[in-house]
Amino acid sequence: MLPVFLFASGIEYSPELLRYIGDRWGDKGQKNVLNWNQFILAQQSLPRLHSSKLQIEHDELIADNLFWNRIPYFTDKAHWGIDDYWATPIETLGSNGGDCEDYSIGKYFTLKSLGIPIQKLRIVYVRARTRNEPHMVLAYYPEPDADPFILDNLTNQILPASKRTDLDPIFSFNDDDLWSEGQNIASSLNDEGRWSEDTQFISGKSSQIRLWRDLLAKMALEQTF
Fold first, then answer.
1. What is the reported pLDDT for 182?
2. Which residues pair with 134 in a beta bridge?
3. Rounded Cα gap, residues 96 and 51, in angstroms
4. How many domains does the chain have?
5. What's 76's domain CATH number?
6. Disulfide: which of 34, 48, 53, 180 matches 201 by Cβ 3.0-4.6 Å?
7. Distance between alpha carbon 16 and the CA centroid of its chain, in Å?
């Protein structure tokens, strides 16, 4: 059995997993998943002898954002038949569709596979002011206290959070931790991992988010093929 990901040589898929992807989503889904591996290999092989680590990481952000933003957008209801579903990167690529959570998750795990520490990455639940609805983006912190850069499926342009005045952050998380994004925001997670405005949000561990736990469990299952 080969692990699904992630290695310096790119992503390795077992023959059984590739067969499962082909059976479920066809040749296009299998090609999309294999393209993910090719994308990571291409990023790793770029000649960057004269680039700083921060410049390399910023270049990877741009490429990562473009790679995932090309996936067609579908609501969870239309794509999966339920109101809220967090897909694994393989599910998003295989099915050739996703929503804001799926884009952010795919970008997060891609940057992890490229070697960016999770301490620099946070998946951020926000309210998009222009749409007046919940939304999810990925934040990259070049330094711990820096203004983070935002990767968003709504735009291919990557801007500092201070320039994204259209987004109101609610909470953020990575593999380990969970943060409230403001002392004045009365919000909390309900059982589905959504935020509500009736109680004070308390920071803690990302394992508090049921949909995140479910996602990691699905990714672990993919590694058993």
1. 54
2. 127
3. 34
4. 1
5. 3.10.620.30
6. 180
7. 25
